[in-house]
Amino acid sequence: MTERSMDRRTLLRALGVGGAATAGMGWSATVGFGAGQGFAREPVRVTSIDNPLLFHSPPMAPFRSTVERPATVSGTRLSMSAVNARHRFHPDHAAADTFAYHFGNAAPTYLGPTIEAYADETTTLTVTNRLTSHPFARDIDTTLHGADEAYRTTPPIVVHLHGGETPPDSDGHAEQLVHRNESITYRFPNRQQAGHFWYHDHAMGITRANVYAGLAGTYLLRDRFDTGTPDNPLGLPAGEFEMPLILQEKIFGEDGAMSLRSTPVVPEGSWEGGAVGDVGLVNGAVWPDIPVARGLYRFRAINATSYSVWNLHFSNHMQFWVVGNDGGLLDAPVPTNAIRMSPGERYDLLVDFSSVDGSVLLCNDEAPPFQAAMLGAVAMPLFCRFTVGSARGFTGPVPTTLRAGGRTPDPLPPLPTPTRTRTVSVSQPYALRVPPAYMALNNLRYTDPDIEMPKAGTVERWDIVNVTDDPHPIHLHLVMFRILGRQPLRTVELQATHIQPPLGVKWTPDPEPFLAGPLLPPAPWEAGWKDTVRADRGTVTRILVRFPTADELGFDPDAPFQRPSVPPSVAARTSHGHATGAATDLQGYMWHCHILDHEDHEMMLRYRVVS
């Protein structure tokens, strides 16, 4: 579609909002079109009008923001600080209080730079906590495990390299807190193939608040095939034609400040369970316009939001290609018109703008999770506009293969045969958003001792039984896995047969007698190595996991490491039946739901890889 033809009606149609529905969806002003100017850039709003059960962002004009490519840092010895900052998310609104990862001399605003590392070259990253008052001080729920009153003014941090095969003392363990003016040095061996990882906060009890405030960034691992240079042997776009896209959705107040809350149903200062945003962001910019040249681009996309699953597509439904996901390249590009993407997942996309006339929108039409929809939440429909200029871009073809050996990586191996099947469960013992709401894996609390202990060097099939009404992205630290597929369940019958015991008693019901259909294979773009999988509502999601040995990793994955000092106020407190303040060493890794609100309230457990 041409920019001139993209008037208000076209925009609404692209966003899935028809004429009669326009008023109900709350478009607060006409998105006009002036001769030769495209949109008049008047404010719009995409949430339901005056729904008393929801908070709404103020009207914001689309495409007034521009996206700057995140700065890139590289090297084997890096240092950064977590700092308070200010950031203007939209040019028509005031700057907001944020957090940022600060490298070098550039003024920090929001998020962190792209870290570029190289396979088999260890990166050491020293991180210092310089944070003071939290932008969401009033929203910190001190009844959550690990959260404390002091975190309102002196929040701790933890940095997790999501996707990295890292030693346990460098994995970003949620209890390995770094308090104000303290530093920690992480060691990332990078003994992996090229991949698209990201680094983000993982502090116990306040992960959702710290990441939402800005503590996240892209981590690109390069190797001799995927070099990131224009002469790479894979023929992929590079340099100015490769761009990280950190995708988020948020809610803003009238003053331009971010809101961690979505509903007045939950009192301020209480854990909510997850907020569906009504404004889309790319690299910290609200509904930006992104100028692109006429050619092929490589976008390294992350779903870095706290809660929502998205179905990403372009407004003209044009084809694009998925060339990789969490753990690296696929065997060959996968053509598609849309992809589903849950929090924590990354997808490596090729988009050809050579035939686009004017501009095209990046959209989402995934309905909100069931329990958010019950309050009236609607899909956040728009991320950005790509405006295609006259300049010539990358004109190379879409590669026909990415993994074939020789000048390319070896093909993905066949699916392994598991030596054990391990059933795990995803449940919600109490009502969401109404205290004492609670999320659980295996019906256990984080500190319960009955943890999974797979053996190093073995392959296990994990059957993830989700009996809740919402999808949950499940992330395993340390490992990459392959998705076998998903099967629907008769969850009512399962729960009636296997009554869920009191919280703290392990509950992992066998799903086999309650299957409601055949195994559905993963989407083609879900092939390859994954570290996060979407466990859909009412399904059993089956994955194959190989747990590496110490020889393969170059470190002992079960080595204990020292627990950092704990402030007395935290060590002395217990809540929700949690054991706290233990003086023991830490050991092992974590697996959890990557809806950040859920992992903060117990949908996270420890596990160990044992000899």
Describe the SSE topology:
Blueprint: H1 8-14, H2 22-25, E1 33-34, E2 38-39, E3 72-74, E4 77-87, E5 96-102, E6 114-118, E7 123-129, E8 159-162, E9 183-188, E10 195-201, H3 207-213, E11 216-222, E12 242-252, E13 258-259, E14 279-282, E15 285-286, E16 289-294, E17 296-303, E18 310-314, E19 320-325, E20 328-336, E21 338-341, E22 346-352, E23 359-364, H4 370-373, E24 382-392, E25 420-427, E26 440-441, E27 459-466, E28 472-476, E29 481-488, H5 491-497, E30 532-535, E31 539-546, H6 550-553, H7 568-571, E32 589-593, H8 596-600, E33 604-607
Parallel strand pairs: 3-6, 4-7, 6-11, 12-17, 16-24, 25-27
Antiparallel strand pairs: 1-2, 4-5, 7-9, 8-10, 10-11, 12-13, 12-14, 14-15, 17-22, 18-21, 18-23, 19-20, 19-22, 23-24, 25-26, 27-31, 28-30, 28-32, 29-31, 32-33
